[in-house]
Amino acid sequence: KKITNNIKLNITTPFGTIVKNINYDETIKDKAPELKIGLILNNIFRVYLSAVEYKTELFKIKIITGNYEYLIPITDNFRFFAGTHLGVFENNMIYGAQAGTIFDITKNIELEIGRLYSKYKKDVEINGYKNGFEYKDTIAIKNSSSIYTGLNFKF
């Protein structure tokens, strides 16, 4: 996730308050688990809902999406997939695309490896004190690109 920080730092001195604005970008990495519940239709389409919650020291966000994927069989137990997703992120729209591979370990367990790109933007305001200074921070949380692995259980 890419975060743009616009920090407004208020430094109190005997002569008044000095306001300093600091701007910087950073990328965060996470290992948040994602829950998917859905259906496989005719062994070539997959439709599911997914939910994930990301937490950092500064904020916590929840993303819920509806996903549609086309499954491309290569062998009886290996296939590629490509699809799109649309959903909500803290009362904002999120959309994007995903692609990857699925390998059947057993009849009911699959190993999935994929790449996901999501487009969104949310400004989060943070206030607090650190090292004796008051700060205000506006963080713009934008777009994400992820590489993931997962186990799918079919029943």
Characterize the overall form.
elongated
Binned, the helix content reads under 10%
Q: Could you list the spans in which at least 5 consecutive residues all have pLDDT below 50?
A: none
Number of helices: 0
Largest sheet: 9 strands, antiparallel
Report how far apart the termini are: 33 Å
Overall number of strands = 9
Task: Briefly note the structural class of the backbone.
Answer: mainly beta
Quote the average pLDDT.
82
Content of β-strand: over 45%
Assembly state: single chain
Compact overview of the structure:
With 155 residues, the chain is mostly beta strands.
Fold and architecture overview:
The chain is mainly β and 155 residues long. It has no helices and nine strands. Strands 2-1-9-8-7-6-5-4-3 form a nine-stranded antiparallel β-sheet, with no helix packed on it.
Question: What's the layout of helices and strands?
Answer:
Elements: E1 2-13, E2 16-27, E3 34-41, E4 45-55, E5 60-75, E6 78-89, E7 92-104, E8 109-130, E9 133-153
Antiparallel strand pairs: 1-2, 1-9, 3-4, 4-5, 5-6, 6-7, 7-8, 8-9
